[in-house]
Amino acid sequence: MSSSTLPALPLETWEASKITLHLYLQVIGKIRLMLHPKLNHWWHVTLYVSARGLTTGAIPLAHGNIELAFDFVEHQLVIDSNGQRRLMKLEHGLSVATFYDTVMNHLRELGVEVTIVAKPFDPERCGSNIPFAEDNQHAHYDPEYVNRFWQILGWVDGVFREFQGRFYGKSTPVHLFWHSMDLVLTRFSGQAAPMEADSQVEREAYSHEVLSFGFWAGDNNVPAPAFYAYAYPEPKGLREEPLQPAAAAWTGEGSAMALLMYDDVREATDARADLLAFLESAYQAGAKRANWDIAALTRDV
Known about the structure:
By secondary structure, this protein is α+β, with helices and mostly antiparallel strands.
């Protein structure tokens, strides 16, 4: 996808649909969380960009496996397990309660028993604190904007994978965290980090030094789609390091986060080059200030 064909994604236009979609993703993500063998840093909970939407990938069961996939081309949820398939149409008016109930019924029909914590995780980020089974409020679904979101994710996934290939050290897959609905790639130095967080989720995620890079569609703090990068633990002097392209900047308050707005990338002459420049400059800034062995960890490009 070239710069000229990256679609607009104004948050105010599809925010109601975004909240509903986010809650659908949480239902499916929580199912993966309960069924998949645990992996380090919560990698077993994430979703992945596919050729048609987002997917859990194959989840092993006692006998065979199961995959739950969002198809944002034909707008349906596809559940495949041991040669059997169930479909659910995604459309305006499909409430979170109906979505949750239908998914769980399909799983029972397929012989898959799973119990999840059936309420939103991090209500401030996902826009709801209503238990899934009771949520008839969120039922907006705009197929045009959901499809745009998927197109953007597919493009970003490709750029992130190219950037991932420049690193010799340990890194995550490119994956989507459903609790915050952001597409993420994280690099590790290999050094343990101080375990200061109270949350079990954060202690596992940040057990080692990281430089993390992501894309999200906007939220209450940044009400527009954007790319970001940050370091944990944050090294001294991080904000003093330069970022590229010129539109990128460090946030002004709190922890240092590098930001590059999606619309600045979309309108660039070479969107791919600008995004790669942002990722590389943020990596160099964090790795330099945190004293990572840049020469040993980074492949020349």
